[in-house]
Amino acid sequence: MTSHLHRRALFRLGGAAAAINLAALSARAEAPAKPTTPMPPVEAFATPPFVDEITLSPDASRCAIVSQSGDDKLLLHFKLAEHDAPMKRINMAPAKIRGLFFGDNSHVVLINSVTAALPQFAGNKHEFSMARSVTLDTAEMITFFSREDNFYGIVLGNIERVKVDGEYRVTASNYRMAIPYSLCLFSFGLTAARGKLLHEGTNDTEGWVLTPDGRPLAYADYSGDRKTWELYFNLAEPGKANRFKQIYSIKEPLNTPDLVGLGRDGKSVLLFINSGEDEGRYHEVSGDGVLSPPLETGGEDKATRALFHPTTKRLVGFSHHDDWFTYDYFDPLLKKLAEGLAPSMGDDYRISMIDFAEDPRKMILYGESAFDAGTYFYIDFSTGEIQILAQNYPDLEQEWITQKTPISYTAADGLKIEGYLTLPPFKAAKNLPLIVLPHGGPQSRDTIGFDWQVQCLASRGYAVLQPNFRGSSGYGDDFITKGHGEWGRKMQTDLSDGVRWLAKQGTVDPKRVAIMGASYGGYAALAGATLDAGVYRCAVSIAGVSDLKSMLSFEIDQHSRDSRSVRYWKQFTGNPKTYEDVSPARQAARAYCPILLIHGTDDTVVAIDQSKRMEKALKEAGKPVEFVTYKGQDHWETVGSHRIGMMKSALAFLEKHNPAG
């Protein structure tokens, strides 16, 4: 670890020299027919990347990084002007870090989660977030809400930096643990565990939109009893006491609007509409309650995200996410900066903007290419300076990195399915063994970005197929809707249709195919081994759902019978009368290949009971099964040593039942 605590280099734009230096990161000679270095160990891929979180101070003088040493998390920080100095470190011990940002120029805010059961919260264990302010120069820490009466020391949302009369503060919301359990918005100084109440909502309040000086401009409520979403707007003059009025409401059981942020003028708020004739569109709304015409986002049938100015917090554009990120700013300066990224970093780089200083010309970028597993840069467009901050996989040899290729094929019912194929290095693309790797969600998607798990499997000689099956996001609302009610049905055959297409091309050997996935992908692995006969030689399920009825019961216990979470899952899983037909644990007698189950004990998203049910059903049916548990591991594979162990277990199983050699 110590050898990676220095930044690699400093470049300044201004001519061919910078371009050549940067090109060296993203280019290599023609790939050799045979490797010139040993196959990297599993640890080179499965060890968490060097950067978990990275952030830039408001004045662009400092950078902070969350990294790790073994299972301990490290908070690393340094001054950007001190190019050759080693990073300073604060050991955070084993922790689940979920977020990091500068509260001011000398304090960072760390957000971490803990798995716990708290009185007054429904269900069993939940993953609760805590927010701490860390003084970088002294390593002193305070936890927001930890000294507020009737509040747990947790945070539930609206965690952001504001500037009040020249002073930086941090806002956060939390439930007051006194009937009627209202959600409250506070602001905190960076050295005080006690804060200032900005607004007290209700038990139905979802969150607020704030102005840059911390004034709550609007908030949203959702009543599960009335199935009504309501928007309240602050009609008071700045500096006066809050005067909220309901200006908009909609009766909707599930797909309610999202309150996203400030509008373009800083006096309106931005809504994303999730139902009706305006489904999938953004609108601005001000105090009169009238929605603006739909905003042009330029991202039809693409995943679109609103972009906000780092200082004014106003809407300044939209980003689109398909194979990668593209930025469409209407703010003149940010538009010019975004258009300058490719010329500055090189056309071979896939680039995303990670964090900005208050001066948006100073930013942190992430870049990767076919031959770079991920590098973070500081770039200052006002001076032309580029500084390399960190590389994610410094021990991974370039020649073992292989690139994903976008593909598309036609499902049995004629629907176009897109996805990615990764071929193993140093092998011809003919009659290869294949791993089908469906993503989680299921309303999510895979992209062309670097994927440590894919790279690890490919290095062992496997081709890897990642289909964005129906129900995946990023292809428009109609494509998502086509997945409703198709668990174990067309969502499943979309995967095996891809196998048949690759076999027809001669790329893969249809007799050497395995399936592996996590979360919904774990369900798909189990369904592939039970419901889609004869396609796979073995299946690996990581934290997968095995029984739909018990999954819904778990969601009801964690939330409520009529919660939006439960209604969301019912939308995808379809008719409850058919749950048994598409539940692998209920169909264990149909299992036709060996199955490996992997699950962490701290999983609060898919309970470990799902894997226990599958193991019991398979054993009772006399079917081959292995079950590996990891104490303390959560749904996101946060514990690095367990992530390595999980990958080793999966590889050993795959190599036994579907060998690449």
Structural features, described:
It is built from twelve helices and 35 strands. The chain has 661 residues and is of the alpha+beta class. It has a domain at 402-657: Rossmann fold, CATH 3.40.50. The strands form eight sheets. The protein has an eight-stranded mixed beta sheet with strand order 28-29-31-30-32-33-34-35, with helices on both faces. Helix 9 (548-558) packs antiparallel against helix 10 (564-573). The longest helix has 18 residues, at 640-657. The protein is globular and about 70 Å long.
- Under the CATH scheme, the architecture of the domain at 402-657 is 3-Layer(aba) Sandwich
Q: State the low-pLDDT regions, or none.
A: 1-29
Figure out the total of helices: 12
Tell me the number of strands: 35
Proportion of residues in β-strands: 25-35%
Portion in helices:
10-25%
Overall outline: globular
* Name given to the CATH homologous superfamily of the domain at 402-657: Alpha/Beta hydrolase fold, catalytic domain
**Biggest beta sheet attributes:** 8 strands, mixed
Distance between the termini: 34 Å
**Could you name the CATH class of the domain at 402-657?**
Alpha Beta
Q: Mean pLDDT, rounded to whole units?
A: 90
Spatial order of strands in the largest sheet:
28-29-31-30-32-33-34-35
- Helix/strand/pairing category: alpha+beta
- Here the CATH topology of the domain at 402-657 equals Rossmann fold
CA gyration radius, whole angstroms: 25 Å
Main attributes of the structure:
661 residues; Rossmann fold; five-stranded antiparallel sheet; 12 helices; 35% strand; disordered N terminus
